[in-house]
């Protein structure tokens, strides 16, 4: 990587540090930083937490701590998190005392007082540190990045998981959807913002600036949620194509040589990619809102739009199919003739094994083979998507997301994504989930209560 | 009030209702509203709470509820609050169960799980209703106004106070100072915004647009905290005068005929008024931050500024002095000669009674009388401000506010506010509280731990 | 005037000077200004004119000249204008030479060259000075104000009138309507901007901020043309009321106690006031465009609007009527009975004299008298407006303006403006001029070629 | 080119047409366009010119004409231009009459009147058409593009050249530098704007988005002049590198792997590229201002900057050198030894011929050869740049530009641009022209009056 690229990659970190140095210089009349020795970390944090609201000296100390954090390596960060987890947790004695008072309370007044006290006791003092850090310039971004650093350590460490819960709860309230702005992203958006889209697009890689531009054409739309304190950073974004009919092939959709459609001639909006950009906001509900907010917005702008649907992968299909347990599923679903055919084609006397062997070849380039595999794979995929559950939820994570959201499965598309990744994950199959505003609540409720997966008649045809 | 003025006064209410009607029309294709009968209120609220994230049908129902609220009279609102308080409170059984699990927990994993569960159990379902309302256009303002409606009912009603706590906690996180913007308000600000300042100025009434303009002159400053979702509404604002030396007289400060000072010639910034505008945000810490943030900003902009201080009333002084108990205080503090003098002047053989009688006259217009009262009143005021406490806090609320903030008492000013209000509350006395960035933390700590009120030598001279 | 008001009144002058001092300090490293002695003025101007494009030293000298101008009294300014007029005019010899070459030219090439040369020769060198001044910060405003200073001197002084032509031509190209922005002015506009409206409203005085606010209500509109280099300064603005039917009374229109109409219920937009703000732009066509641009805009926004009309005074009516020559007009138009009645009412045996005497009383407060005067005055006003011409143009300046614009006279309104000014100028009569987009070109053409004044049947009824 | 790229290339044309269709639909209630037959062109234009100010019908007809123009092929456009040139030129009879009146005038009043009349007579009626077109949405861009279409036809056609003069004069007044904004272009600028920079960079091609980003790094600057009516279109832009010492090699300057410098550590700003973007604005002075405005701006922002200079090609050097006439120059300048050496190296007994032959090889990759050629080529280049004139101006166009601007020649750099283009045009030599604010006026004057080319001692050393 060139020196200049390097600068770019580190931008956020450097930018924050630069802002802080300037603020510190303004507060203290000099830029010099106290070094924070690890054995004094606890004392330092305590000092920041107890500073009066808005105290400039407290602010300066918070900057010193933040600067120190930015310089820490992973081990030091872990040490820092452990200190927060251990030394600045809620006081168990206070929690217990408040709990006892609540149990003992008989009068409403007492009960309310005790309940509020218990809530207060459950709020760890470290939350005040997070608040103080958030008051720094760019403090918002710092906390999000800090949580991204913390998350990998939370597995198997209950106290760090609790620390993470505190941070997440705080961020969740600051990033409540009611506080975010839906912003349309276009080719007139800042280059630095589009660069971030290219970096964060998680579903169908944006290969070049040309590709980026094609995705922002007159028959394309892109929307993101933004927070006013992070103006150039989409927290999550969705890419939409305006088309005629339900699009069933991602390569066609992304083909830069296709003639653009006049937006007012389109009857369908296809949501073909949705990506989060901030690891530090994971677990905070944003995606659920984004699709529906965009449906509302597009529906209001373009009267010709009648249908809103996704074009989505089935990312767990091939993994599920590869499980030996699916040998039985296969024989249960496919007809005898289909099984025999698979065995013949694969030259293998076990249908499941044969199928898996065939799927390891470049089968989709062989027309005859592809034709032979269509029925079996579509049936198996329908079985996987519609009938395969875990704990009452769809096994496929994308299906689970859209069902929770109140969509229904509209269509299963054959050879819809023939990219290497699409073949490897989903055997090239993609799905349309349809968002019908009038049915969202009912679909959601059926899925939430009974795990019921709504399907169109067309999709259901592939069920045995 | 003219019809047109009326329109203006109701703006916020009408504006919100208009936005909602439009949104509803867009969501449903028609504007018609279902009427919500009070016996179905509980069911309605439950339906909104259980709607999936971003569900347009849920949003429409939330609008219907909000519209119904806007039309309610006080009694109906109280009924609505009681429903929320009673039917959508935290489940005591769940709280108890989680509490028991926490007590029983032995392993860290268990303990953390139980603690998180307890926190969750303590979160009433009505909070989800507030979140859904906040998603509506102008929902933010609606919730603030709703809390303003609720507050008068919380006295003596524990369950409503708890409901208020829930709303306050939510608003406090959304209005965290880290999420607000400090904005300078000038004569180039929108007239509608300045009109709000004129309406909300709580300390020294803004009498006319001319007066408003004078307060925004080249040697004046005005700053407010704003939330990006309420762009034209200062949540709190402070008015500042740039002067030479510590200003000790509010009438001189506000005199429109005085020659303006060149800002770069001023050595002192006087904060002479600070006002909250939203009852619905009461109890949420904003003022503590505002003064210090403005000190930081002005200090960075104008190098000539050396001192930052307030010119504040002593709003509780006259009330305190009127208490018969102060008869003893008076004789303890004043010299015998002073007491005799008071008795002579008042023609009353009790000094305290005599003083109070004199204070009911237009004494400050009588030069000789005023001269005679100066020493006694300044001493008594010093006693009131510096030595009179309740529960370890300064009795005077303004003193308490600035001490908590880390200021110190700099000067007591004689005949500093001769307006009727100033004479009635503070016998015309005003105080300078000085903000020295380097001493804020220490001042705050001394006051917080020992109730110690920092004073300058000049202020202390009035103590016996 | 208080010191602070004074500051405000001088704002523009001081503001410009302040900007220039700063720029000069940045250019030269110090603020010191050379004093320009009047005997060196010519040399100074020549130096600025000959500086290379964008030369910082030339810019500094231009600032010095500008600063000197700001300090000049009227006599010195006149001296300055005379210098420009005399020393920096087009060179007559060069003009003559080019003229001869043009006359002598036979080939197209020669002819074109000579014509361009002639054009060049006619362009005085002072125009380059104006360009250099325009490059200064706020230079735009400076030039406009300079022309406002110049205008009073141009009467009777041909060389100053020519100087003014140069400046006007330059300003006219810079303020070409194609370069201006139509901006809606609302109660959310900056207070400093609204203050300017209050200052510049030329037709119906805005009496207070309350009055200002009423004129920006939900059923009112205000639009102005702005130049991007003078962002807070409307060059011209128009006030509009949305009403039902053709409004015929200005007091009713401006009554703050009237209930506001829902804009979507209005069928007529009444333009009741149009005011220029910059004397320095007089003679530059703006008003012609403003009304029609606003008609186009409002028509696009509010489908319910069917009619666009003004409510205008007849400012020359009373003056015209007072002319003894109108004695004959009166007897020609009024019936014998009407004349007799006037003589009786006035107790004067000359009808014209009698009428004038009556009009000097508070006649409109006397119901009977008012009723008796209606027919005669309406007929006379119709005669004045529709039939009275000078050089083929309507004598009344407002009528001339709207006829040139392509409007037609729609209605003559009795007791439509009973303010002292309205009574004195127009005997309380006001007129509606209607703008029908489809007829503008035809109306304009008829008036331009034949002086024909388009009228509705209703207006024509008052003609004899 | 893909269909989508195509869309992009045509954007401006299509965008304008789309806007116009919408406006027309709004004006007329339908989108239908009258077709303009060429034989009625004159009549159509006359109709537009005579429409009253702001007439909606006139506006609609102007749109029809504009739409027709957008559809015209080159031949039809030429026809259109010829119509404007012939039918809508100034009236020669009126010019002559006014000329006669001017000659005959004796009194100042008469003289001024005649002169103004002459000016008016010289103003062709087609200028009013341009003004009407400029009133259309996007009309500004339309006129600029129209002039770009016109320019190629003006050679050898006097009447079209005169038409062009009219358009240029109008555009020059609308694009007067005093009306433009200097805007800094950064990586946060709209992608669509940066795309235009990539398209228009005329000096050192921007090869990719990565290259673009490097040119906007922390130690780079880019500024452009913008007009408020063309917000996303830089009219001209300049690229600057902040460096230490006078940069003498363009490849090093553009090397993306070089470590970026902290801006506050740079002592020199190098202007390494300046590009116009609008052919339709050619001949309008912008570049002269841009460099000096940026010098002023950067000087004010970064105190460490001491020098401002360009790194420029000598685009005419190799052409000049190739002229057989330079055989004599060469022998006049080079020492005998140098001539002999050239003959030896080239194996050619004529030094000039030999040199030219050597320059056709990849000589700069041969260290020894390059060393041998350095002295002769540097001397010849100095001769070319400093001493070679035509009509008293520097022959090299870049030298002429910077001398007119008031710069001086600071250094001649060997092997400073080894790109194919750099070798072909300038034998790899580049020049630094230095802008010293204090000397600009003097440098400019010496060059303007005497053709004197200012040089540093270092540059002069290469002169014989």
Strands ordered across the widest β-sheet of chain A:
1-2-3-4-5
Which fold does the CATH topology of the largest domain in chain A refer to?
Answer: Aminopeptidase
Query: Radius of gyration of chain A, Cα only, in angstroms?
Result: 27 Å
Can you tell me the residue ranges of chain A where pLDDT is under 50 for at least 5 consecutive residues? none
Oligomeric state of shown chains: homotetramer
The CATH superfamily of the largest domain in chain A is identified as Malonyl-CoA decarboxylase, catalytic domain
How many structurally independent domains of chain A? 4
Would you tell me the structural class of the helices and strands of chain A? alpha+beta
Architecture overview:
The structure is a homotetramer of 464-residue chains. By secondary structure, the first copy, chain A, is an alpha+beta fold. Chain A contains 23 helices and 10 strands. In chain A, helix 6 runs antiparallel to helix 7 and helix 9 (139-150) runs antiparallel to helix 10 (158-174). In chain A, the strands form 3 sheets. In chain A, strands 1-2-3-4-5 form a 5-stranded mixed β-sheet, covered by helices on one side. Chain A is 54% helix and 11% strand. In chain A, strand 7 and strand 8 form a beta hairpin. Chain A folds into 4 domains: 3-89 and 124-174, Malonyl-CoA decarboxylase, oligemerization domain (Butyryl-CoA Dehydrogenase, subunit A, domain 3), CATH 1.20.140; 92-121, no CATH class; 177-310, Aminopeptidase; 317-460, Aminopeptidase (3-Layer(aba) Sandwich), CATH 3.40.630. Chain A is globular, with a radius of gyration of 27 Å. Chain A has helices at residues 3-9, 11-28, 41-50, 56-71, 74-87, 92-104, 108-121, 126-134, 139-150, 158-174, 191-200, 209-214, 250-254, 287-301, 317-322, 326-333, 336-346, 351-359, 367-387, 397-404, 420-426, 440-450, 457-460; strands at 181-184, 220-226, 236-243, 268-276, 307-310, 312-313, 389-390, 393-394, 408-413, 430-434. Chains in contact: A-B, A-D, B-C, C-D. Chain A binds chain D through residues 2-5, 7-8, 187-195, 209-210, 212-214, 217-218, 232, 256-260, and chain D through 2-5, 7-8, 187-195, 209-210, 212-214, 217-218, 232, 256-260.
């Amino acid at each position: 990587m060139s020196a200049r690229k390097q600068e770019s990659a580190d931008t956020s970190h450097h930018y924050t540090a630069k802002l802080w140095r300037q603020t510190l210089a303004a507060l203290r009349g000099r830029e010099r930083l106290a070094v924070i020795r690890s054995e004094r970390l606890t004392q330092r944090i305590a000092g920041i937490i107890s500073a009066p609201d808005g105290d400039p000296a407290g602010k300066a100390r918070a900057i010193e701590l933040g600067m120190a954090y930015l310089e820490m390596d992973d081990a030091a960060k872990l040490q820092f998190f452990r200190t927060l987890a251990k030394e600045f947790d809620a006081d168990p004695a206070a929690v217990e005392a408040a709990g006892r008072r609540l149990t003992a309370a008989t009068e409403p007044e007492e009960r309310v007082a005790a309940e509020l006290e218990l809530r207060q006791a459950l709020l760890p003092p470290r939350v005040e540190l997070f608040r103080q850090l958030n008051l720094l310039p760019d403090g918002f971004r710092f906390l999000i990045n800090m949580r991204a650093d913390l998350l990998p350590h939370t597995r198997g460490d209950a106290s760090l998981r609790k620390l993470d819960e505190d941070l997440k709860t705080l961020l969740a309230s600051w990033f409540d959807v009611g506080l975010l702005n839906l912003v349309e992203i276009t080719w007139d958006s800042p280059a630095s913002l589009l660069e971030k889209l290219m970096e964060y697009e998680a579903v169908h890689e944006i290969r070049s600036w040309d590709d980026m531009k094609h995705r922002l054409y007159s028959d394309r739309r892109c929307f993101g949620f933004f927070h006013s304190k992070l103006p150039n950073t989409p927290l999550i974004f969705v890419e939409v194509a305006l088309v005629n009919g339900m699009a069933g092939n991602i390569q066609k959709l992304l083909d830069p040589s296709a003639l653009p459609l006049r937006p007012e001639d389109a009857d369908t909006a296809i949501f073909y990619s949705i990506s989060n950009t901030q690891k530090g906001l994971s677990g905070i509900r944003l995606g659920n809102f984004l699709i529906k907010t965009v449906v509302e917005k597009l529906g209001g702008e373009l009267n010709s739009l009648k249908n809103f649907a996704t074009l989505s992968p089935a990312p767990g299909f091939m993994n599920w199919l590869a499980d030996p347990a699916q040998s039985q599923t296969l024989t249960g679903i496919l007809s005898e003739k289909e099984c025999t055919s698979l065995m013949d084609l694969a030259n293998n006397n076990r249908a499941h094994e044969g199928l898996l062997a065939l799927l390891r070849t470049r089968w989709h380039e062989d027309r005859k083979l592809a034709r032979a595999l269509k029925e079996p794979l579509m049936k198996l995929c329908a079985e996987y998507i519609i009938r395969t559950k875990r704990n009452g939820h769809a096994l496929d994570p994308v299906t689970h997301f859209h069902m929770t959201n109140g969509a229904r499965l509209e269509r299963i598309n054959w050879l819809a994504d023939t990219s290497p990744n699409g073949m490897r994950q989903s055997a090239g199959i993609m799905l349309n989930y349809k968002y019908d505003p009038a049915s969202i609540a009912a679909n959601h409720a059926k899925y939430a209560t009974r795990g019921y997966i709504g399907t169109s008649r067309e999709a259901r045809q592939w069920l045995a």
